[in-house]
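Case 327 in the screening queue. Each case pairs one protein sequence with one candidate compound; here the compound is PMV. For every case the pipeline is the same: read the inputs, emit a complex structure as tokens, and attach any notable structural observations.

Predict complex for case 327.
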Amino acid sequence: MGVVASAPAKVILFGEHFVVYGEPAIVLAIDKRAYATVENRKDNRLYLRSTNLNLAGYFEHGAFKIEQGDLKEARARFEPVKLAVDKILEKCGKNVGLDIEISSSVPVAAGLGSSAAVAAAVAAAVGALLEVNLAKEDILRIAFEAEKTVHGTPSGIDPAVSTFGGTLLFQMDTGFKPLEVNMDIPLVIGNTGVERSTRLQVEKVRNVKEKYSRIMDNVMHAAREIVLRAVDAMKERDLDTLGELMNMNHALLYGVGVSDESLEWLINAARKAGALGAKLTGAGGGGCMIALAKSEKLEQILEAIQNAGGRPFIARKTDEGVKIERT
Ligand code: PMV
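Case 327 output:
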């Protein structure tokens, strides 16, 4: 039967890009989760299977053998998982074979933190199977190490949200601060299906910042004020204000050049269908947008995004971080 663990995906509600320059951002764990099922093996192989990506293969004596799917893709998805497993084996001084099955309802490479959710779920499941005592901080550290193999220099937002769940205020110099949010945040997430590179999007903003440094000082200041106002709006359970602030945040992101046609279509469709606010989320240039709405409007907005060519789903914030589902 094996041990099953899960961890949530995330959306950046406010502050992406500006966070790179020290401004605050608000990140939310959503009720889309990655699941890892781990079982012992009789041999020493680390066998990995991803049910949604149709990938399977195993590591043995440091080499990777593909059994199903594209070799390059399998390596890219499985290397961070292997790293997470190795860290735990190191910690408990064991050298055992494992079967790991990953299944996830999180779209991959869309800025929703799928790789971090997988790494956190795998770390928790392997830890529980091998009876290693892992605190959440340990899981965060392992998922962060795994994430570094995916992104190079990630901010650490994704593994933190996948591990702890909930709503986090993040700032480069001070790190994460959990925000207590006693309201539902009903969202429709629209995937444009357009692949983008976070690195290139970040570079774009850097160029704009260099060319228009004084203007950008003011843009950064505005971005910061939006986040601080959003924290208050969440305390006041003021969904309307939160929506307006999302529109303002998107205007800034559009201004610095990280929106694109695919995102604008979906954002406009969502607003027309009655969203309180809509914006791109994450790096932009494709990837995903989010729309905030009263619960009764969610289906309508979902349909509008679908008709505009997006792949939408309804998401809600979750306070549940990484957890063991079954031992
Ligand atoms: O789309 P994602 O999840 O890769 O988010 C990128 C967020 C940025 O602020 C653009 C970059 C960063 O490292 O914070």
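Case 327 observations:
- The chain has a mean pLDDT of 94.
- The two ends are 8 Å apart (CA to CA).
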